[in-house]
Design goal:
The chain has about 290 residues and is of the alpha/beta class. It has 2 domains: about 75-140, Ubiquitin-like (UB roll), CATH 3.10.20; about 140-280, Cell division protein FtsQ/DivIB (Rossmann fold). The chain has 8 helices and 13 strands. The protein has helices at about 1-15, 20-45, 50-70, 85-95, 105-115, 180-190, 195-200, 230-245; strands at about 75-80, 120-125, 130-140, 140-145, 150-155, 160, 175, 200-205, 210-215, 225, 255, 265-270, 275-280. A hairpin with a 3-residue loop joins strand 8 and strand 9. The N and C termini lie far apart (about 115 Å). About 15% of the residues are buried.
Length: about 290
């Protein structure tokens, strides 16, 4: 009797382990094998619109079920809104209280929100049973872009925001030029190395799609500073040193030309030619002066 039990125990140990992975593999293989033969039929069904109608039926059924279970929009909250109009947000959201919350197309809602003037980024969350939460990151105006006789706020990415209707950003510098918004961020980053001097910049004009002239203190009557195409930050630091050492900007100047590193050209009110040169004299060949 003991020998029989011992033999049975040994046979049990010799049995191969159960292959638990076999069924899933066989199932996937059958699906793949049947997929090839069914492809042409599925294509025909799609052309006839069966899938679209079936999808509409499923969504309708899901909507009815969700409504029956109380899964409808009951509350909409917005985080991060400062200047974007609430009415525009609700219109872009496309949802109202009582709508089925499960069928809301959140990626589409986010895309519509990010098309709004002040919205830089948007995130939309569905918090069951009935809460839709929106998080916004709004654009920060960097300058006023003068174009075709009107002023439009732009951000650091060069994106247009819209007019400054309330006059909240009248203190921002004015930029001029067809490609000024795309290059203004790099300019202001270079000017910020000398914060005292940068605070006096009232306007920046893009010249020849390659360099800048900036206006100090006053847009109409301020000093016109002509910056070089390359080494803009170095030229700006040079002007800041001249101001600290010699109070250059306190004189009656019309223009300061910094385009040549070995020469400083200034235009004065008392100079009939409007120009005076200091430093090494070399002939200028810049046609956009």
């Amino acid at each position: 009797m003991r020998r029989v039990k011992k033999q049975e125990a040994q046979n049990a140990r010799r049995q191969p382990p159960k292959r638990r992975w076999l069924k899933p593999v066989l199932l996937v293989s059958l699906i793949l094998a049947g997929g090839g033969s069914a492809a042409s039929g599925l294509w025909w069904l799609d052309q006839e619109g069966y899938f679209r109608r079936a999808n509409d039926m499923v969504l309708k059924g899901l909507s009815n079920t969700a409504s029956g279970l109380g899964l409808v929009v009951a509350d909409i909250t917005v985080e991060g809104r400062k200047r974007q109009e609430p009415e525009a947000i609700l219109a872009a959201l496309g949802l109202k209280r009582g709508d089925p919350i499960l069928t809301a197309d959140l990626p589409l809602v986010r895309a519509r929100l990010e098309n709004l003037a002040w919205v830089r980024q948007a995130a939309v969350e569905r918090r069951l049973p009935g809460h839709v939460h929106i998080r916004l990151v709004e654009r920060e105006p960097m300058a006023q872009w003068q174009r075709n006789g009107r002023f439009v706020l732009v951000d650091r990415d060069g994106s247009e925001i819209g007019p400054d209707v309330a006059g909240e950003f009248a203190h921002l510098p004015v930029i001029v030029g067809p490609d000024a918004p795309q290059h203004a961020s790099a300019l202001f980053a270079a000017l910020s190395a000398e914060p005292d001097l940068a605070g006096r910049v009232k306007a920046a004009v893009r010249v020849g799609n390659r360099r800048w002239n900036v206006k100090l203190d006053d847009i109409a009557a301020g000093i016109d500073v002509r910056l070089p195409e390359a080494q803009t930050a170095a030229a700006w630091s040079r002007l800041a040193r001249l101001e600290r050492d010699y109070q250059l900007l306190e004189r009656n100047l019309l223009m300061i030309d910094l385009r040549l590193p070995d020469r400083l050209v200034v235009g004065t009110l008392g100079d009939p030619e409007g120009r005076a040169e200091t430093g090494k004299k070399t002939k200028s060949h810049d046609k956009d002066a």
